[in-house]
Amino acid sequence: MKTENEGRAGLLYGIGAYGMWGLVPLFWPLLKPAGAIEILAHRMVWSLAVVGLALLVLRRWGWVRELLAAPKKLGLLALAATVITVNWGLYIWAVNSGQVVEASLGYFINPLVTIAMGVLLLNERLRPAQWTAVGIGFAAVLVLSVGYGRLPWISLTLAFSFAIYGLIKKKVNLGGLESLAAETAIQFLPALAYLLWLGSTGGAAFGAHGAGHAALLAATGIVTAAPLVCFGAAAIRVPLSTLGLLQYLAPVFQFSLGVLYFHEAMPPERWAGFSLVWLALTLLTWDALRTARRTRAQAARLAAAAAENAAETAAAEAGAAAPAAASDRV
């Protein structure tokens, strides 16, 4: 019963995390007239404050000493902070400049980019279905390039930056809350320096448009940390295959908002391109679920065989021990 409740809670946490990430395009326009860079700087500064408070409450500081003693990890985290800065900044700018649909495409194609990077950088071998999905994704980018009259550079930059970020995080192997704390600590001084400079030149929006607007800028820390906390809670309660399916909630919500709420144009060629992306993701998901089922079935067969061998060995040892015991009695 406890496992079932844990699984249900994990599913709700996962939906909460990806739901918040999917609905965040509704939040960034509220911060206007602040520009994308100022919003980004506030996000970095206030995220560190929120995450630092969370770590203080949880008393999880032991990792700091270990991290400071590992220069390679620190270098990787600095690179991760740089990459996610590009990702965050471009996403905020895209949403506030009316390009939510193209931004959502970046997170639709992110799994395909991650797979392609695994082949190119980690020498991973793909199954036929994965090769087909990557090929369809490439065709989708070509179709969308024709539709936009240019490469969908916003989508590609978001997809590649997030894929690189994920690759770095995998190598660093640090918890979500701790990793965000380290990354925002690296971002903090440049972000704070920019905000102070902006304030000194009279160009800062913070405080110039009322307490409500200032509170919204400060809330960027919560908007950043809350879904990450929910994601961390989901990751320890549900299988990775479930998280893999839930990840599509965010771009689905973003795409829906772009079309239905922000009323962005969707000419036929864009529908064609998105349809190809969705076909590739459907194929990728089907292949992942099929592989997971096969792996579980194989593990169950190996476990059953091991148990059977153990039982036969125990029976043989018992049979060999019986005559010896009889002879001892004689």
The helix-and-strand class reads: mainly alpha
Q: Which spans of ≥5 residues are poorly predicted at pLDDT below 50?
A: none
Query: What distance lies between the first and last C-alpha atoms, to the nearest angstrom?
Result: 54 Å
Cα-based radius of gyration, to the nearest Å: 25 Å
Give the % helix.
over 70%
Characterise this structure:
With 330 residues, the chain is an all-alpha fold. The protein has helices at residues 2-23, 36-58, 62-68, 71-96, 100-122, 128-148, 153-172, 176-200, 210-218, 220-235, 240-246, 249-261, 268-329. α1 runs antiparallel to α10 (220-235), α2 (36-58) crosses α10 and α4 packs antiparallel against α7 (153-172). The longest helix is centred in the last third of the chain and has 62 residues, at 268-329. The radius of gyration is 25 Å and the shape is globular. The mean pLDDT is 83.
Could you provide a short overview of the structure?
The protein is an all-alpha fold. The protein is built from 13 helices and no strands.
